[in-house]
Queue: 4 jobs
Job 1
Amino acid sequence: MRIKEIMSQDRPRERMERAGPQVLSNGELLAILLKSGTKKENVLQISYGLLSKYGLQNLSRTSLQELCQEHGIGKAKACQIVALFELAKRIPLKENEKIPILKSRDLARTYITKMQDLQKEHFVAVYLDSKNKIIVDHTITIGTLNSSLVHPREVFHGAIKHLANAVIILHNHPSGDPTPSEEDLEVTRVLEETGSIMGIQLLDHLIIGKQKWWSWKEQMIQQI
């Protein structure tokens, strides 16, 4: 059945206009985003097919290349889906960037949504002003964390550039287990010593796992 053959009051866009987005199913919301289907399947069938195969959470992690392989999903629609979920991940970052970071938990909750599902290790430096508000963050390296890849120069160059008073570093463990390795601890010690010499405090090193993180400052794993 083509979407035009569905009674107008039952089409997703018309239902949204009439009753609001909260009454729509996930499939209907996705159909509005995708707009059109194919000759064999209407957009609702394609949307429900994607959600049936992946589920909403897994769909949010599906790569552009994987989506392009799905029936009825070309490059344009795949880009729309990936862009949607990327924007959703950025919402907590924008909401919290001007809120003082009083505890490591504040920062962990902000970044865990963005980092816990990454398939490679990302090492991120978050620069803070004198009131512990986020100035900016920079991804320093992508790949296995070791002291040869994470040089203090790369971390503290950003701190100097942005006149940061302090820095918090984060990286994720794709395995989902945030337990620190010896290499993780060595990198932290080197950066702490460098920050002390430069007068830029390293407040913490957070390791992001699946729905949990490890804090160097608190020396423990915590649940979100």
Job 2
Amino acid sequence: MDDTLLALSEAAGIATRWRDVRGTEHQVSPETQRALLKALGLDAETEADIADAHQRLSAPPSRPPPLIATVQGGEPLPLPGARPGHRFKLAWEEGGTLEGRLDDAGRLPTLDRVGYHRLSLDTVAMAIAVAPSRCPSLVEIGALPHLDAKPWTLAVQIPSLRRAGDGGAGDFTALGDLAEAAARHGAAGLAISPTHAQFAARSGKFLPYSPSSRLFLNPLLADPDAVLPGAAPAVVPTDAVLIDWPAVAAGRQARLRALFETASDDPRFLAFRAEGGRALEEHARFEALHTHLLASDASLWHWRDWPMALRSPQAPGVQAFAREHAGEVAFHAFCQWIADASLADAAARAGAAGMPLGLIADLAVGTDGAGSHAWQRQDSILDAASVGAPPDIFSPLGQDWGLATFSPLSLAAHGFAAFIEMLRANLRHAGGLRIDHAMGLRRLWLVPRGAGPADGAYLRYPLREMLHLLALEAHRHAAIVMGEDLGTLPEGFAQDITDAGMLGMRVLWFERGEAGGFRDPAHWTREAAAMTTTHDLPTVVGWWRGRDIDWREDLALLPDADAERRAREAERESLWQCLSATGSASGPRPAEDNPIPFLDAAIAQVGRSACELAILPLEDAMAEVEQPNLPGTVEGHPNWERRMPGEAATMLDAPDVAARLASFTAARRA
């Protein structure tokens, strides 16, 4: 059975072998193969099962999928199973038709009209997507040059922002305040933290990269006053250093409920709800149902454990619940309206302030399998496996991130509808999109439910089609695309995304030569975004002071803290020498407790990089010591709880901060 099982796994997209960071090859166990095949909807317990699964994979579909193919403009399109000379009729998306015959290879002629078009072959109708060859460039968007320089943006964790009357955490109005302030200092946009929907029933926790849905927004980031000024109750002021998420959530939900009581008949809300259609209605039903069930039984967190009559949006019990709790369902739809309208306001303010990129949204790699998205899209999202990472030097047991993701087989069978839907939702108010763990466009490490992280395997994804659709949707929304491409990548992947017009990421700490020394920024990749650090890494000041090492030592996350400190000391010397050699720094190396000269030099170094775009985290602009998130921790470190020291509208005007931003702009002109 092993040979036939291996063949089936490979045919289904499961890589049966993988190579670790040391170059050692590993064979995926039969148990893992069977578990992942089952997650994909293919039984493989017996030879008969395997034969049947092979037949299902190889058999032509009984009817064409909604989207049969994607192609780059200028390429002929082969149609599997079509006859040479077959007559066709193509209805262009923008109107008009093209009629003719397939060529001798059964292909459509070269197509140069970008869009989603309807193809008819006899009585069979299907859609095809014609994509541009690349995602939009900074030049095409009008962001390069910006103010006679290569563009730069700030990166911001939205909850960290402050404004008067915010109730203890940042919101979309504070984001708009920051956009206007940053534009005055020369920023071309803001790269923002994920705005995905969390769980209304778990509003006391904030996990931006483990959302309930990537289709909808987090109402806790909304500002009702941006939509209905003065209609919501006043907020109790707070100047706390850390965000108290349970208190913030309670206060903001109370405001939204009070507002709903007076504005539920607002014509704008009714129009938004009608436009949102089935997807919005199902999300609102999930939120209401989830909250209702948990109020009586805390074990019903995952929809998989709900009564059978409630486990899918189409189930009779869900329809009955929606009728009986129509007001509660409407409330959750109302929350989405307020969130959408206040995010739209922030985006409009960024554009009006002169930012050509506006807001660069952040797309998480997956969703919580217990959430709304997985419940709604059970035909496209894998329920019995989660995304993670194989064992490596830093995580010898591997990682299980507990995130659900798309089934590549189902995506293709359903015309990539769920992927397109997700892209559109996240590009709705954005001038750019950052794709977290962009390698997931080609492969993801999946861990079967109940297995350990090391007992997973890579599942391949249809990279070509997904890049085509990404380019098409990015052009329709006039947005750049950036892929988080850090770490070990599959062979050829970096070139694949570069060819597709995606910007990679180049982080100061990781830009090293073969001998381990830091690289001159003039040699960094042009088609990328340069940055000092990320939300998962130490701030520049924190790195210089070794604050990240202190945290990991205190939380018993380091086997040898002294060795880490010795290594950091050597890195300080190496990086300072590089900064001095490139002209970003001068004079003797500053002491560990004097990080500001190093911070200013590091910012200048990133600014003068060859990268088309540069991103400065707000924490570094403000010379903050602490990083937003410490990976590998759930308790012990205040992840996603830190706040900025000043108000979003004015904090960039502090003399030291303004000077830092001016230096960054000057470096982008160099």
Job 3
Amino acid sequence: MSTSTEALPEPIAPPADGTSARRRRRRGILSSALLWVALAWITVMIGAALLADLLPLASYEQRIGTPRTPPGLTWPEFLGTDQLGRSVLSRVIFGARVSLAVGLVAVTAAALVGGLLGVLAGYLRGWPDRVIGLLLDSMLAFPPLVLLLAITAIQSQSFLTLTLALSLLSVPGFARLVRANTLSLSKREFVDAARLLGSSPRRVLLREVLPNVVLPVLSYGVLVLAGLIVAEGSLSFLGLGIPAPRPSWGGMIASGRPILSSSPWLTFVPAIALFLTVLSINVIGDHARRLTDKKAAAL
């Protein structure tokens, strides 16, 4: 009778040189660097948009030089001129004012309306939840482009019309997010404790639920802002945005597209500004989401 023994596989020891730790450290340093670069870019764009009237720039309607002058070292023709001899730099900065203003106003209005609907649906439940859910489903049933076309067809093209259309498209997302967070928070121990202590529903809502909903809404709103800036640029590119001569990044890209081969800066300069702004907002929003997730896990 013979017995046989099988050799067990030896456990693989972790690398002694700390390679994984160094990789995590490098990723952390790169992530922090990207965040600071993104914050710097957004700060510059917001500052330039707010102070555009005080900066040594030509008016976005003023003709300052020869039409279609390429970028050079002269001021204010630093980024060249367009088909009418207007400064591309001035129009990009004033276009930033339009894009950022539309995005910020639309996302703020959507967060307020959607947040209110979401809190009511998640906290009251019952028939208010069903009615609000039906309203949100009805809004989501319309294709976004069709809804935007309908709103711009009924109303004249203006800042108010564009902001209203984009905010309506964003309300369901905020409402669903707030409803889900409210439902989750209403079952937590600290909310039950507040009810047992005799707090009124209004006090529980204002003191216990809403403060813990704000951070997820803010982190989600940053990401929505990036999408709304892209949407505004797309609508302006299609001729449905802010009417000329007021500049917008999408309108500048559209006006430079027919002469892209001979004057590429007319398209690339506003496109790069749009790309870097949206990318920076997404980087900031991603970091905000991570912080929000850590706080939610600690509750």
Job 4
Amino acid sequence: MPFYPRQDKGDEIPYTLLTRPEKLVMDYCHIDIYEVQEMEIDVYLFFMREAMIFENSKTEEGREYLKNCWRMEQTKPDREGLRKNFKKKGG
């Protein structure tokens, strides 16, 4: 599941949503909560990931969030980017 700590903590609501992941899957798959609850866990997690990516890809802020998630998942350095940014100056 893509994850990156959000920076926009100022407008949080004072309530905890307990079924937000289920709601994402329900809307994405066009099914009801009972069908979500009957899903195998691997299928549920797959659709939750897909729904989360789909919803975040709709806004500029969401796309930035997904880019940060992707960046945090990388395990190999971007050598070309490092060379370009830290190129030795001079002779």
